[in-house]
Specification:
By secondary structure, the chain is α+β, with helices and mostly antiparallel strands. The protein is built from eight helices and eight strands; from the N terminus they run ααααββαββαββαβαβ.
């Protein structure tokens, strides 16, 4: 299933096909514009923007597209006004969802997200109904082979990370959202490039999905949400491998 496992997300990000490349570019451009608007257009002084520019390079996004997105954020070029919206929802089997959207039309975004959940056996929830089931934190995933565990753990904790987890796939660093830029900068100075670097909603507990029909509906729901242009990130708490 998509969206329920931190390392499966890495695989999806690396498997961008030509048919989806335009959508990936569009989402990156929106994020870059918002990052530049919030923290300025200089990546050296804006860790969030710097992270996004690196993502754009890895996705082979044209430099001109990146430059335009930055200038729209700083006001040097005209552009639409984007807003960030967070939706809380439930899917089949009571699986909790948090959906992050960036949109220039809140009514359209809400309609599209609501329709996706309704079609696949879910529904939107009120604010606060779902968020308590997730840890809101900065999250960095570093694949094994990039560095050794001891070095990475020491670097992360010194930069302000709250937690460090190791698995077969690699290492996970968690930090308070306010410490995200500092941890990101520390990794960059050390020449360590994470597979994932984002402000995430990490499930506190996961929900096992044993019914095949529900598992299929969840897969379809993730796909439907991924097709919505306004949707930037989807977090859910179904059990990995369900």
């Amino acid at each position: 299933m998509a969206g329920h496992n931190k390392w499966s997300k890495v695989k999806r990000l690396k498997a961008v096909t030509d048919s989806r490349r335009g959508k990936v570019f569009s989402r990156l451009a929106r994020d870059i514009t918002l990052a530049a608007k919030a923290g300025g257009g200089n990546p050296d002084g804006n860790a969030r923007l710097r992270t996004l520019v690196l993502k754009a390079r890895e996705a082979n996004m044209p430099a001109d597209n990146v430059d335009r997105a930055v200038k729209k954020g700083t006001g040097e070029l005209p552009g639409v006004v984007y807003e960030e919206i967070t939706y809380e929802a439930y899917g089949p089997d009571g699986v909790a969802f948090i959906v992050k959207a960036t949109t220039d039309n809140k009514q359209r975004a809400a309609k599209d997200v609501r329709a996706a959940f309704a079609r696949w056996g879910g529904n939107l929830a009120s604010s606060g109904a779902v968020a308590f089931q997730f840890l809101h934190a900065g999250q960095f995933l570093v694949a094994r082979g990039r560095t050794d565990e001891e070095t990475l753990m020491g670097l992360a904790l010194e930069a302000g990370a709250d937690d460090f987890l190791a698995s077969e796939q690699g290492f996970e660093i968690r930090c308070d959202p306010h410490a995200f830029d500092k941890v990101s900068h520390a990794l960059e100075r050390a020449g360590i490039r994470p597979e994932i670097a984002e402000i995430a909603y990490i499930p506190v507990n996961t929900v096992p999905v044993k019914d095949a029909a529900h598992a299929d509906a969840l897969e379809r729901l993730h796909e439907a949400l991924d097709e919505i242009d306004d949707v930037q990130q989807v977090f859910s708490n179904e059990e990995a491998g369900a």
